[in-house]
Amino acid sequence: MQQRPISPENDMNQPYCVRVTIHGRVQGVGYRAWLERNAVKRGLTGWVKNRRHGTVEALLCGEANAVEEMVEECSQGPLAARVEHVDRLDIVTDEIPEKFRTLATD
Predict the structure, then answer these.
(1) Which of 6, 27, 92, 103 has the most neighbouring CB atoms within 10 Å?
(2) Is the pLDDT at 11 greater than 70, yes or no?
(3) Whole-angstrom distance, CA of residue 39 vs CA of residue 66
């Protein structure tokens, strides 16, 4: 995978992926279920999982505007979450997931 910065030159209607890592109180508060539900609502594919060190990581793929909306929503999360910050990495990949799913913790 390569880093792909978003710029005005990118076609915002082309599918692309963003990997986000969400920091803060984000485990044990329904964050993964919230993220999956909202990603599916936006027609996104990808995955979400807890990381052993306490963060939540997700791959969000789809139409650029929908991905950007979801990335922005990740900084809020569900009501019980307390998001400190969200790291993002814009990526290019030929392996776009077919659906959205929750993965096991790693």
Answers:
(1) 27
(2) no
(3) 9
